[in-house]
User: What shape does this take?
Amino acid sequence: MIKLPVDPSTKLLSYWRTLQHYPFGSFIFSRILGFLVPYSGSIRAHVVALEKGYARVVLKDRRRVRNHLNSIHAVALLNVGELATGLSMISNMRPELRAIVLSLKAEYLKKARGLLTVEAFFNLPENFEDNTEFEVQAEIKDDKGEVVTIVTALWLLGYKDQS
Assistant: This one.
């Protein structure tokens, strides 16, 4: 039996391109993503743009993501930042590749309040060594356009075992 590789990039972008044209399509896509990745789904982020190597996600300021200082919790910010970096990376991966996060770092520049917009870009080089580390950054901006947090994810990208 021939096993065809699953292409996460094609699958992810196909779902996105299909659903985004329907009323509430991006909302449905975001909920499906949250179901498939339960921890990331816990913050109920909303994917609003997804292209090859690019993701834009929004996070509403609401009680479930707040801390005792009446701002968005540091871990919620890290979570949405990691989600955006992962989407930007997966949307640009070839079928023979796999990725895993090695570390996460966040720079908290100011209290995060209001509607937040997160953007991440990943440009996959044509050639690279197996098990190469890539830093992918996500900028989190508030509704005034000011950067509140920068999340840096260190991803290990390599080739799937072909055996």
User: Anything to note?
Assistant: The two ends are 13 Å apart (CA to CA).
